[in-house]
Specification:
The protein is an alpha+beta fold. It is 26% helix and 21% strand. The longest helix is centred in the last third of the chain and has 18 residues.
């Protein structure tokens, strides 16, 4: 992600659709010629947290869409691992890089079919990337180094970059953006400037599941694709239902009744309660997700560094860890999450200190007086809501008035595209799209990576930081890039365009008769590996 942030948690553009977006898709040629294995049966129903902003992988960039996109589409490579991340073959079997680090040659897997019956080839890969890069939506900013994509054989693709980028193979395993879509299904349909897309209601993937229906505000239904290149050996679900219940109590009740097989967004109290229920298991995993508070640095008051630092000192980090997460989190130690490459701890971290907050407001002069800000969040993001309420009370103690406002993800995705409509302060979440904190530094803090090119919804701008980030991004090796990343991070931390709050441990509740679940450190609890899951 992200990701958001609950968004990958940034969603840059939301899709607009009718109430019933896809009542039923036509049966594909591959579906008509094969039948699933007898062991493919039953229905899996899971909570994905919240409704995706779009079903088009070239547009969506939020954790709510991870499970759908990964189930319906495939990437060239796959990122796997519960505690550390490794790269595995996907639609591609291998890659090589030129000596100057600017050209990557990728060999595709043969015998892969799209859900519409057409065959995967190099032209389909080129089509998918050309479409994605032209639209400049979603995670486009991460791939802006691609100069051109060439089909040099039936199953060979070359990616020519404008500059060396050592993490490029890792980006090809991202869930949002680099999925391969069928030219036959997409045809001449274009992605609109507001992100609306034909794939909001149609499926053009090669993944294990096909789209059956999408009922806006309620559910997405998938069915097993008989012609999936990975095969159906062993046990699998024939049908998958993705939902986003509105309340923690509803999730808990349905889980206990057995009408919900798995969920991820209950309160700590409800997780604790179901952990003692018969037939339910609760797993806890160290996450790379972060809860961050994004500050619109263009707004009056917030454009002053001392006001932003005051807000950083007014945040009760340990109070949120204990009061909101019940100890299942840790205060962030720097700009990005721990556990991935290029993490650098802050040398002088912000702490909860209202006296220092008042001193920063005094240093701000007139900019620090009579301040009123609106704090926004996703309406169903319970931890952020609770943290915002704590923040509101503490800010009142230093004379800052905070108004609280829930904003749906689709609305948020549209309003962040302009500084004037971007929320004053946003409580969200972020997960890395690929296994390197450098992704966050580049996407969040390079001045040109504002929506729709990146995740800089703070509209943070510093020419020194820009120069450091460019040098790091264009370095020919990770070792050469690291000093530039570190210098940029230290300067960003002092500028306080965000409040870096907590890195949680994530909980997943599952019915005990569900097997095959594998936690993903990179993609977080929002990703359900539905293909590998089965009923015991």
């Amino acid at each position: 992600m992200s990701h958001l942030s609950i968004p990958r948690l940034l969603v840059l553009i939301a899709a607009v659709g009718a109430l019933l977006l896809a009542p039923a898709l036509r049966t594909s040629a591959a579906s008509r010629t094969r039948a699933p294995a007898p062991s493919v049966s039953g229905t899996l129903t899971v909570n994905v947290g919240y409704e995706p902003a779009s079903l088009d992988p070239a547009v969506d960039w939020d954790t709510g869409g991870e499970t759908y996109i990964a189930a319906v589409y495939d990437t060239l490579f796959r990122a796997v691992g519960a505690t550390r991340v490794s790269l595995k073959p996907g639609l591609a079997t291998r890659w090589s890089v030129s000596r100057d680090g600017k050209t990557y040659t990728v060999t595709l897997r043969s015998g892969v079919h799209f859900h519409d019956g057409s065959t995967l080839n190099a032209q389909a890969v080129k089509f998918s990337f050309d479409r994605f890069l032209k639209a400049k939506q979603g995670s486009y900013g991460i791939f802006s180094e691609i100069k051109r994509v060439q089909a040099v054989g039936a199953h060979t693709v070359k990616f020519v970059l404008t500059y060396p980028f050592a993490s490029f193979p890792q980006t090809l395993a991202m869930i949002d953006g680099p999925e391969i879509v069928s030219p036959k299904t997409v045809g001449s349909h274009q992605i609109a400037s507001n992100g609306a897309s034909y794939l909001d209601s149609h499926d053009a993937g090669t993944g294990p599941y096909e789209l059956v229906s999408y009922l806006h505000n309620q559910r997405i239904v998938l069915k097993a694709f008989p012609g999936y290149w990975g095969g159906w050996k062993g046990k699998h679900f024939a049908k998958v239902v993705l939902q986003w219940p509105a309340s923690s109590s509803t999730q808990r009740l349905r889980l206990q009744q057995g009408t919900l097989d798995g969920t991820i967004t209950m309160t700590p109290e409800d997780f604790a309660a179901v952990s003692h229920s018969s037939g339910i298991q609760v797993q806890t995993h160290t996450a790379q997700t972060i809860f961050d508070v994004r500050i619109n640095t263009t707004k009056h008051g917030l454009n002053n560094v001392h006001v932003r630092r005051a807000l950083s000192y007014a945040y009760d980090y340990n109070g949120v860890v204990q009061g909101v997460f019940r100890g299942l989190a840790a205060k962030m130690r720097g700009v990005g999450p721990t556990g991935l490459k290029n993490f650098f701890p802050a040398s002088h971290p912000y702490t909860f200190d209202l006296a220092k907050a008042q001193a920063e407001l005094k240093a701000a002069g007139s900019a620090g007086k009579n301040l009123t800000f609106t704090v926004s969040y996703l309406p169903d993001d319970t931890p952020s809501i609770q943290a915002a309420q704590i923040f509101q009370a503490d800010c009142a103690k230093i004379g800052i008035k905070i108004n609280l406002q829930g904003i749906p993800i689709a609305t948020y995705s549209n309003i962040v595209t302009k500084p004037s409509t971007d929320p004053d302060i946003w409580f969200g979440q972020w997960t890395m799209d690929y296994a390197d904190d450098a992704e966050m530094y580049w996407s969040y803090f390079y001045s040109k990576n504002t929506p729709n090119n990146g995740a800089n919804v703070m509209y943070y701008k510093d020419h020194v930081v820009d120069e450091l980030l460019l040098k790091a991004q264009h370095a020919t090796s990770e070792a050469k890039a690291a000093p530039y990343w570190k210098a940029a991070v230290n300067r960003i931390y002092q500028a306080a365009p965000e409040i870096w709050t907590v890195q949680p441990r994530e909980q997943i509740a599952l019915r005990s008769n569900i097997g095959g679940y594998q936690y993903s450190f990179l993609f977080s609890k929002f990703y359900w590996p539905v293909y590998s899951m089965y009923r015991k």
